[in-house]
Amino acid sequence: MKEIGLTQEKLSVEFDMTAAGIQKWLAGTRHPSLEEINLIADKLGVTQTWLVHGLEPSDTVDGLAHDRQSVLRNLIRLERSQPMPDTFWEAVSAMAAAVSSKTPPTAVKSSSASSRNGTDG
Predict the structure, then answer these.
(1) How far is 64 from 75, CA to CA, in rounded Å?
(2) Minimal CB count within 10 Å: which of 60, 77, 96, 108?
(3) pTM (two decimals)
(4) Helix (H, G, I), strand (E, B) or coil at 110
């Protein structure tokens, strides 16, 4: 908090609470209500998801197509139940890097038998 110029006293004034109440939030002995979370997020200019979980909306599977959500959730479940080998994650990371570094093609050439076997010209 000090890095961004916030103190417990400033927070207590801003949110009309005691410094002890803020301390309990920060220590994890008391959790803010949903209304308080919304107020804090609005005042700080962050999303509620970031405030509560440290995640930006772009860090979640929300908004992705159902089949993609399903694949990603399955990978997460598998990793938590039995971690994948490092080589798996290295391959996934390499694929993600390769895809993100490519620019989208302007036209997609149709695949024909001659182009698949390298005989087109």
Answers:
(1) 15
(2) 108
(3) 0.44
(4) coil
Cβ contact 120:111 at 8 Å: no
Confidence check: pLDDT of 107 > 50? no
In the structure encoding, which two tokens stand for residue 107, read together? Answer: 């036209």
For 30, phi then psi, to 5°, come to -140, 140
- Please give the distance of CA 99 from its chain centroid, rounded to a whole number: 19
Residue 35's alpha-carbon distances to 42, 46, 49, 55, 115, in angstroms, are 11, 15, 14, 19, 60
The burial of 65, by beta-carbon neighbours within 10 Å (0-12 exposed, 13-18 middle, 19 or more buried), is given as exposed
Whether 87 contacts 93, CB under 8 Å? no
Q: 48 Cβ partners below 8 Å, 6+ apart? A: 37, 38, 41
